[in-house]
């Protein structure tokens, strides 16, 4: 199956997009990282059982882990989950007991990232990461 990837909203490199989705209780996570023109990483994984918010926070945690692996020191991050982006920016507190472990992991990973930014964007502008999620859901039978 072919996946069309739209032009990113950010032309600043590097930049990253994350997305998560849960269908029938199964989490799918996707990350899209542009290091520089021509050096792009598409990553997706199955996150097990959960909700949309769990899939989103797992995608964010995965993105931060990948940034550590790649040695990125400065990065604008975009995601379409307002709840997760506002939680990371300490504008909103999530108290869902099922998400606390993942949220704590993201908070610890985010704490020392002075040159990272995170912004909420609309779903139509997050299609690069979303396409990874949809591909995974298609491959595992939970297609949209």
Description:
- This protein is an alpha/beta fold and 144 residues long.
- It has one domain (15-139): 2-Layer Sandwich (Nucleotidyltransferase, domain 5), CATH 3.30.420.10.
- The protein is 35% helix and 28% strand.
- The chain contains 4 helices and 5 strands; from the N terminus they run E-E-E-H-E-H-H-E-H.
- Strand 2 and strand 3 (39-49) form a beta hairpin.
- The longest helix is centred in the middle third of the chain and has 19 residues, at 52-70.
- It is globular and about 35 Å long.
What would a concise description of this structure say?
The chain is α/β, with parallel strands linked by helices and 144 residues long.
Supply the number of structural domains. 1
The H-and-E topology, N to C, reads as EEEHEHHEH
Distance between the termini: 13 Å
* Rg for CA atoms: 14 Å
What structural category do the secondary elements indicate? alpha/beta
CATH superfamily: Ribonuclease H-like superfamily/Ribonuclease H
Largest pleated sheet = 5 strands, mixed
Q: What CATH architecture label applies?
A: 2-Layer Sandwich
Q: Can you tell me the overall shape?
A: globular
Which parts are unreliable, with pLDDT below 50 for 5 consecutive residues or more? 1-9
- Seen as an oligomer or otherwise, the chain set is single chain
Count of DSSP-assigned helices: 4
Q: How many strands? A: 5
In terms of DSSP E residues, the strand content is: 25-35%
* CATH hierarchy, class: Alpha Beta
Topology of helices and strands:
Elements: E1 15-23, E2 26-36, E3 39-49, H1 52-70, E4 75-79, H2 82-88, H3 100-111, E5 116-120, H4 127-139
Parallel strand pairs: 1-4, 4-5
Antiparallel strand pairs: 1-2, 2-3
Helix pairs in contact: 1-3
């Amino acid at each position: 199956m072919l996946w069309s990837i739209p032009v990113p909203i950010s032309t600043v490199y590097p930049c990253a997009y994350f997305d998560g989705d849960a269908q029938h209780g199964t989490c799918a996570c996707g990350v899209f990282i542009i290091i520089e023109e021509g050096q792009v990483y598409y990553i997706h994984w199955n996150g097990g059982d959960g909700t949309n918010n769990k899939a989103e926070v797992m995608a964010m945690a995965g993105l931060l882990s990948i940034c550590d692996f790649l040695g990125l020191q400065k990065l604008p991050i975009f995601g379409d989950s307002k709840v997760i982006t506002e939680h990371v920016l300490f504008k909103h507190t999530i108290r869902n007991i099922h998400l606390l472990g993942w949220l704590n992991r993201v908070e610890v990973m985010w704490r020392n990232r002075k040159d990272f930014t995170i912004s909420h964007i609309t779903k139509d502008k997050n299609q690069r990461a979303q396409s990874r999620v949809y591909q995974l859901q298609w491959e595992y039978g939970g297609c949209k």
